[in-house]
Records
---
Amino acid sequence: MKRPASTRTLVAAAALAMACGIAPVAMSQTASNAPAAFATTDATDPYLWLEEIESPRVDAWVAEKNAHSLGTLQADPVYDGLHQQALEILQSRDRIPYGSIKRGGFVENFWQDADHVRGIWRRTTLQSYGTDNPQWETILDIDALSASEGANWVYKGATCLPPEDRYCLISLSDGGKDATTVREFDKQTRQFVEGGFNLPESKSGVTWIDRDTLLISYAYDPSTVTNSGYARSVRILKRGQTLDQAREVYAGDVTDMAVNGYNLRDADGVLKATLIQRAVDFYSSDKYLLKADGSVEALPLPRKGGINALVAGKLVISTDEDWTAPSGQTFKTGDIFAYDFEAWMADKSVQAELILSPGEREAVEGITATRNRLVVALYENVRGSIYVYDPANWSRNRLDLPENVTVGLGSTSSENDQMFVNVSGYLTPSSLYFADAATGTATVAKSLPEKFDTTGLIVEQNEAVSKDGTRVPYFVVRRENAPMDGSNPTLLYGYGGFQSSLLPGYSGTTGKLWLERGGVYVIANTRGGGEFGPRWHQAALQQNRQRAHEDFQAVAEDLIRRGITSQPHLGIMGGSQGGLFMGAMLTQRPDLINAAVIQVPLFDMLRFHKLLAGDSWKGEYGDPDIPEQRAWIAEYSPYQRLSADAPYPQVFIHTSTKDDRVHPGHARKAAARLEELGHDVLFYENTDGGHAAGANLRETARRVALEYTYLTRRLMRDTSGENQ
């Protein structure tokens, strides 16, 4: 249950005192004899050992939990059918082969199916791509590569040297980790370059300067790593050099989140400038120009914001804060503006040109450029449209696309103004449009067949009122004739952080395994996300994080108030930051729910900054090492708030051993603590997969089937008597 405000205040005061090393003032005559609060220090956390990524003790614990959870869920009568349906959808060959437009009239695509579980990188001509049966040629087969090298490779992308794009830097991950090895590949010979660039595993940034020179931000030993686990310096690496021999051109501080370099090139691939970005935290960064003499020049740009495009000689910039330019011009949070690039390089105080200033319920969800046009995905009340801007005067036209859908910016051509645009909705299978930004025309190039029966299903948008009066929109996908008597099994999904928007999208597995079987699917657009731009996100940052939790709780309450569902039939789901969301709901309002799928979660928020990439998220949550900020975090950190007396439903927590972004220790410790307190827990850990928890399609199908089997047991059957 949610604690009364007075109790929360006392807890915060105690946490603040302990963080300062001061004994808290006695709350009663017996307080001095009370045991220390759970897991507020390393000494009071009995499950720190579960933070070891792998060890005999940890491996045995994981194996035991997996055996129990898999034995329970896979033995359920619905599992086999759900698993088979998930496999068929995920391995289907009639998925859209999303591709990148390349010079010379080619389209490249990375593809996975039942025969290519790890995937193939392939290409075809643009003309062939537009047919029903494109003629693909394989560039690189990741399954064959893994088999030949006895490795567990997961493809993480390629960076090719423009304009020819013949030589590429291939990023390969061991089992799905964020960290990758980087190897030079020749697309013409279809071979890795003998004696070519070959960089060891790291959370790295790497790009081409020229054929024999790379710009790298590489975390290859402890001296080159920030506290967040990312690179803290930028170097220039020449062919034949070792990493130690690469010339350092900029170094940040170990307390920075990361330092990286990137190049600005024009549409012809000509290098116009090399830039360095020092990310102080997740949202703030200093930008520098690398000059010809090797020195760096600080650039007067918004610290919160960045460079979005170089198009037709104009440098396009967005700001996530109110900002005053050297010219004296002022820009509001969310504005997009531009400089004439050559004039700005010569004089940073030149006047900027305002391109777009979004309204209160508008948000920019994407910016890209073709050869001659700037393209912006602009959303109003979480419904998308695409506008094309002419850099000559920044006049705009709306691209001819369906309305009231999600629109996503795809690959663009640097040779002309052609581009791909993806369109989808909750009940509308994804369609890939081939558009011309110059003319504003768009035609369907590819479309998906329906993966589930939408007969009788509708989408509606409602609003809940949060604790502070803020109107919080949410989408409901349900049967039009669903009874409003609280009986509908309902899955409420949330994320609520990092300015990441939850936009309408088509999911074949959710539709087939949940909606088609009578379930209701709800998506909450809470603060912390980016649905209404930077301000919507910033309203739930750091000391205001609880607002996002209250938004999510308000949506749950509104669903119950409207009769869409009720506590016995309401479940929640979220991953990563969304896993923290689930933990907050579980510990604050367990009375509202009867199921929780907690995916690769953050959970111990007093130690998040000490685990893997966690230090990089201080900009989002605050710093637990600063007493005042630790007090905010202690108010909601789920791990410390778990209680023996709370009416928690059985929960399903899953993570991945290979996740090197959100530490699997969060999920493990949550499960261990819940079990210690006498609660029923299902825990599953995939030993591959990385943060996305799916190194291959078969594992993804198993995870999805496990989730919907669990939800079936909790929400579609009577669980009033006991946990199942």
---
Amino acid sequence: MQPRPGTRLLLLLVLPLAALSDTRGSEELEPMGPPRDPVVVIVGAGISGIVAAEKLHRRGFLNIKVLEATGRTGGRIRTQSFAKGLVEIGAQWIHGPSPANPVFQLASQFSLLGPDALLEENQKMNIEGHPSSIPVVYSSSGKKISPEVVTNITALYYTWLNKAQNLTDCDPVASVGSFIRQQVVQSSQEWDQDMVEINMALLRGLLNVECCVSGTHSMNYVGLCPYGEYTMLPGLDCTFPRGYESLVNHIKAPLPDGTVVLNKAVKSIDWNGSFHGGNSHVYPVKVQCEDGDSFVADHVIVTVPLGFLKKRSLDFLSPPLPPGKIQAIKNLGFGTNNKILLEFEKPFWDPNTTLIQTVWEGDSPLTEPKKDLKQNWMRKLCIFVVLEPPEQLGHVLCGFIAGEESEFMETLTDEEILSSMTDFFRTFTGNPELPPPISILRSQWHSQPYTGGSYSYVAVGSSGSDVDNLAEPLPTHEEALKPLQVLFAGEATERNFYSTTHGALISGRREAQRLIDRYPKLGAAANKAKL
């Protein structure tokens, strides 16, 4: 999911742009030699790569190739048939669907949204990244927790989160998790003794939800100082009735046939060189594919996930990435947030239920969970979204699980998960005869070789400057007399909108504009042709 249930989730891809401007002049950076159209290769056909290709094509660039390692476009946007309809394996919501969000702008332009999403009052609603409704909460003793108790603890927790987001002076190595623990210790001294255990269990569950939101194993890994740099847009989160991939399909529709090449995994990128093309021109970049094919280019836009760069940062480019960029890749966090989708013959939840949360009695935010993943992986399952409308989808719950437990889940068979989930819901509902789910589908983002997880976060020891560093093109400013060769896009390169689809989209537009600015004659010719 890409999810921030109710805010931002799988991964996975807003104006005004935090646009990392490059002050190098445009005219001196146009390729020397005979006039010709620049050749641009884009690595990755997620939304950042697709939107970059579409923008370049619209502005007169004719020689564009998008190389995609897998057999599909969309990246961490992935829609699939399940139960009676379509579900999202990756990005779930438009987070902050309002005029400032370019994903919402395009979805509205393409008529991809339902009527509620277009209501002005929904676009103005500011939920500050929190779920818009209070969940129904089941405890491991098989009982529902009082809505009043849930509301009070949830409000207290979100007060702490908002405080964390607004801190201006903090320890550079402090974490969001440590900050929340401090608040728990202080607040718990005022609780009635008979409420301590259930309050602690609820807070542990809320931290597990926040792990899904941030795409991390533990909030102890998320840096406190940069936590507030993430920008939340107004608007009540919404979904695509015809699937998130409908957006990708509309964006790529204008691209000429053959622009996107599937099953074309890139092995390495050689840059700062002199490579001859079939037309006798010399190019500074050559992209080598795993199947032996190669492509020469004037510019390459790299849009691969941070998880891939973490595995390949030392050998993916030659010459190697600068030490500062390699360090930024190491510093930033990239975790796993997976979904488990379950179809039931009949719902065990009330018709007006939209969210179900589960908490384990005896758990506490002040203690670390047990490490036995085989025995305890399900304890990290924390929240389930009731997918709507049931008349089109069936009775489907979408559960979220993050971190090491999520990665362990990927190693299990569907049958093992189905059996575990049956026991899980029988325990929490207190009904030992509850019928098992009739079908199951789960994401496995950590296991995907070209992804390696769900989305990025700013980890302890990193900062927003690492995000900026990751977005910096090559050659660097220190080599300003050389033309741009390798550019970087993707959600992990957007300082204020990392982990989101709109962040990914903004980054693709940003890097396309960086090239457009260097070829002003192309843009002028494209505008003249339109007239």
---
Amino acid sequence: MSRALPLRRSLLVRLLITSVLIAGCSVAATAWLAVQTTTRAIREEQGQVLADDMDILRQLSGYAATHPDWTHVAGTLRAISHRTGRRIALTTTGRLPIADSADHRMSLPLKAAATVDPLRTDTDTEPGAQLAGIDPRAVGPYRLPTAERLKVAKLATVRQHCFARNGVHTRMERLPSGRSYLTNLDPRAEPGYVPTECADGKLNTPTRTEQRALDTLTGLTQSCLDRHDVHLDAPVALTVDATTGSAAEPYYMGKRPVEQEGVQARTAKACVDSARRRQLTPYVAPAAELFLGTGDSATPRFNMSTANKVKVAGVAGLVLALTVAATALMALRLVRPLRALTAAAQQSPEQHVRVPVTTHDETGVLARAFNELTERRERMEAQRKAMVSDIAHELRTPLTNIRGWLEVARDGLVDPDPELLSSLHDEAVILQRVIDDLQELAAADAGTLRLHREEIRADELLEQVAAAHRVRAQDAEIRLVVDVTDTLWLNADPVRTRQTLGNLMSNAIRHTPAGGTITLRARRQDDQIVLEVADTGAGIEPEDLPHVFDRFWRAEKSRSRRTGGSGLGLAIVRHLVTAHGGTATVSSAAGAGSVFAVRLPCAEGPDVPIAAPV
């Protein structure tokens, strides 16, 4: 047993220290967040609103007037927030977030500061807003293309020169739609004064783009007027206020009702306003709720009272106590199975100690893995002992025979005639075969088994194996059959493959009685070639099938080398096939023979025609 771990390296102590640190940081962060939140709430309740609220509203209304949605408003929102030091948030009318300038999620105020709707602007706070409450920057289909902008600017320049010749000083400006207009700079001139020479009407004539938009507006307005039984015959026109330079709302140019302030006049104006909003709706962003918060500067300090400090300290202490208790319980549950695993691992290897699996978590998985490792180690130890015993048995028998005959010949009891020498030679061959098989297995286990792959035909390979064992099969009165219908190619080492099939053939001849049949077959299955050696022998019991390819395993329990071989042939078959990237299987039933199947990678072969491309 190793000495106990020092306390500072104990998993329990480290878990406790970690939990205490986490709990302390959590309490400190929670307290700081509570102070900050309370400070901001007090500041909001005190009504400390900055003077640029209306400017924020104006900028966001301009964005909504020039964009069909709020998709890319986040950059504008952050720029305004950075400049003003305010938190700015936009939500839909249903309180779904659109954009927020805050770096982290914070609760919004209970009430929105304003509604951003370019089609319903407060005319008292939005400079240049139309009387219908439409933001002047919401031009929609009235926006002039470049060619028309240049044409209108040229007409404005001509009129400006004409005004100058008549002693009227003007300044050329441009509307959000791109239309140029003139502003009279002479305070003595009457509003809207136009010299007779300059009144050609070209500057105020709608362009093609404006005319299309006005025609659409006329149709929408006419539909509304028809529903209210108000009939006017002229289309809607677009004018510019000559005194202020702002665009007046389009009005109906037809004969107005006699009563300018009557029901029909109000109906006509309402229809124009409604049609104007319907026309601009696809070109502006939908209405949004604006929430304004305070910045991070000049925040008043929040001083906690003694009672609140006691409460915070009490809650922090309670959280720490609960954290330590819970961590201690959890750590004990974690450490207990680990200590059991450590104690089991420190036991003598011959005992093969298992540990109980009491949980289904990671520790339980580790315990099950430890038990499985112990079982594998126990099986490998048993196999090692059995292998050593089998090797000693296989080597002892021929060596004993050779030694006995040599001692008899040395003592002069028998003459070293050819029959004795032949017997000694047979025993030496058996001994050499066992040693060669052990060398093959050692090379396979060490990964030094070299393969020289090439493309070989399956039918020729089976014929070669059958020819090599035909004499032995005839002596045992066994019929050999080669069954290959197609020309199949496989990618393998021909020497090692013949050795594999030769071991299977020797095994089949050894266990097939006189008058039986051994069949060698080859067929293609997916991308592999299946080579089968089927016999009509006594078969293998179902409980013995999992051990067929084990080393030194024999079907005969008597372990006779004369009938059962060395017990290494099938183990060598499995290693050779695995080295080729294939598999070796067996299917058998008692009294019905056995079928050994070897699956190896196939090859196209040099004489296989290549399919023409489709």
